[in-house]
Amino acid sequence: MRNKVLEELLNDDLAQVRGLTEKAMFGGRAWLLNGNLLCGARDDGMLARLGKGNDAWALATPGIAPMISRGRPMHGWVRAAPEVYEDDTLRRKLLKAALDFTRSLPKK
Fold first, then answer.
1. Under DSSP, is residue 38 helix (H, G, I), strand (E, B) or coil?
2. Which of 1, 6, 81, 82 has the lowest CB atom count within 10 Å?
3. b/e burial code for range 39-51 (CB count within 10 A of at least 16 → b)
């Protein structure tokens, strides 16, 4: 199920980012930067790719949890609840961290 409100927030925040594509994924929408997954919007929250070892600060924030896929934690990925992604400052902090990590990856 899609979360159109979150999709709009992410589209607005990412509007000036070059090399970005968007597609259906994770049961919602996903954004890729230079072919690498960056973040996603699902009905259960915002997904952000922070990279292994880069997510401790985020996981210490109330409303942010590890992303679970098929019952297994996805290391380096977090899921933010509405109280986090609806806070412009927190959402943008997550996006900046995701952009910083994803920009460090080789282009696909």
1. strand
2. 1
3. bbbbebbbbbbbb
